[in-house]
Write a structure and sequence with these properties.
The protein is elongated. Strands 3-2-1-4-5-7-6 form a 7-stranded mixed β-sheet, with helices on both faces. The protein has about 220 residues and is of the alpha/beta class. It has one domain: Rossmann fold, CATH 3.40.50. The N and C termini lie far apart (about 75 Å). The protein is about 35% helix and about 20% strand. The chain binds S-adenosylmethionine.
Length: about 220
């Protein structure tokens, strides 16, 4: 118990009152706004603070990042997930829209990043059999089955034996996907079938973390 004459409580009250005062709150808000590195895509949720996304980062992204491995991210947008993939030896960021790659380049221009402008489903310039990890979030949810099939086929060529891919896709078994017109007609059953047809084996699935979508992890079926 502190001495009765201590200024402990009065000091704490003053700190609280200062932090609550309008000029101080305005100062902190402006300082935060000016120092924030604005990343396009955080408006859909920040994996630093939004629980399901934080889980995806921890379970589906970070365990695969290794400096002796190479990775591909499909549809990086402004880099919401790219920032967690910077620990790869080489990171190919593949996007159909040049404007998005330019936006990404503003925040991420590390030497290990290779910017790849594709024609929708291909991996131009990415060497076959050289990729350990493919990641895509928020992109396949909008792609129709023929585009997904073409992507999976092309992915089979670039992934190493023993490599792994984590793809986030639309899950129309969920009400929130049914209500979202921009989400493509896909379900875990359809996705599994497309993955298998392209020569992969499904290793793991996450059907519960996201309310409108699901994730699948797969690896190339041995050709031997
Ligand atoms: C909704 S944003 C998601 C961005 C980022 N992954 C995120 O979660 O914040 C979709 C991204 O996919 C890109 N994109 C759309 N169609 C694509 C395609 N067929 N191939 C590659 N990228 C595509 C868009 O340009 C954009 O960067």
């Amino acid at each position: 118990m502190p001495d009765l004459n201590t200024s402990l409580h009065v000091d704490a009250l003053r700190r609280f009152q200062r932090a609550r005062s309008m000029p101080y709150r305005l100062y902190r808000a402006i300082r935060g706004e000016l120092s924030a590195k604005a990343i396009y895509g955080l408006q859909w949720g920040d994996p630093e603070t939004v629980e399901p996304l934080a889980f995806i980062k921890k379970r589906w992204v970070l365990p695969y990042v290794r400096p002796d491995h190479n990775a591909v991210e499909i549809g990086p947008g402004g880099g919401r997930w790219t920032r967690y993939l910077l620990g790869f030896g080489k990171l190919y960021v593949v996007d159909y829209y040049k404007e998005l790659l330019e936006e990404l380049r503003k925040n991420f221009n590390q030497p290990e990043i290779v910017f790849v402008h594709n024609t929708g489903t291909d991996f131009p310039g990415i060497p076959e059999g050289e990729i350990d990890f493919v990641f895509s979030f928020g992109t396949f949810v909008h792609l129709d089955a023929p585009l997904i099939e073409a992507y999976l086929h092309n992915m089979r060529a670039i992934l190493k034996e023993g490599g792994t891919a984590v793809i986030h896709y639309s899950d129309k078994t969920k009400v929130m996907a049914q209500e979202n017109k921009s989400f493509s007609e896909n379900t875990p059953d359809r996705m599994r079938a497309m993955v298998a047809h392209a020569g992969f084996q499904v290793v793991q699935e996450d059907l519960t973390t996201m309310w409108h979508s699901s994730l699948v992890r797969f690896t190339p079926e041995s050709r031997g």
